[in-house]
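Feature request, filed as a ticket because there's no other form

It would be nice if the structure record came with a short human-readable summary line next to the tokens. Right now we just get the raw output. Example of a typical job, pasted below so the devs can see what we mean:
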Amino acid sequence: MPRTLALFPLNLVVFPGEKLNLHIFEPRYRQLVRDCIETGITFGIPPYINENVSELGTEVRLLNVEKTYPNGEMDIRTQGVSVFRIRDFYRQAPGKLYAAARIEEITDDTTEDALLKPRITEYVRQLYEALGLRRLFLDLAPNYRIYEIAHHLGFTQEQEYQLLAATSESERQEIVLEHLESILPVVVETERLKERVRLNGHFKNLTPPNF
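Raw output as currently delivered:
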């Protein structure tokens, strides 16, 4: 059933479940946060890509206001809830400064492909270790969802939006697997090259071949 949702377009992709900290300074979004506090409304963050508000976005809820500054600016904590599609966009909600839209919620199938999961996990391990980010892998929960790692895989904003458009976990797994199979060899070779460059000119303790 379509409903009206306040909008806060941003130049980034937010995923369901993701926690996002924002500094609020524009009067229209300070008004939006006040409405969230006073009435409990949620709001949508559609990515602003190529000078346009995207059709898809993520509904988020306000968790808390971390700090309010003397000039009215605020630091807030939010969390993504679910993906929606914009049907009608309004530059201003009735009687408000901020934008809004008639939206429909998108149903998501969270069932993962059990055969793809270990392959993705191994590729992620290799990627993080090649980049010296092993701690990220160690902190990864065994039952992680693709949304939880999507910002740490080297995706472009357009590729992250493609993930947002996927309506099942298995589809997101396929997108990530294809991406990792494409970039991992390049990343590993680049890191090896960087290491060779660092070692160039150093005294090397090498064992000559025995022939």
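Something like this underneath would help us a lot:
Residues 125 and 138 are 9 Å apart (CA to CA).
The first strand starts at residue 3 and ends at 7.
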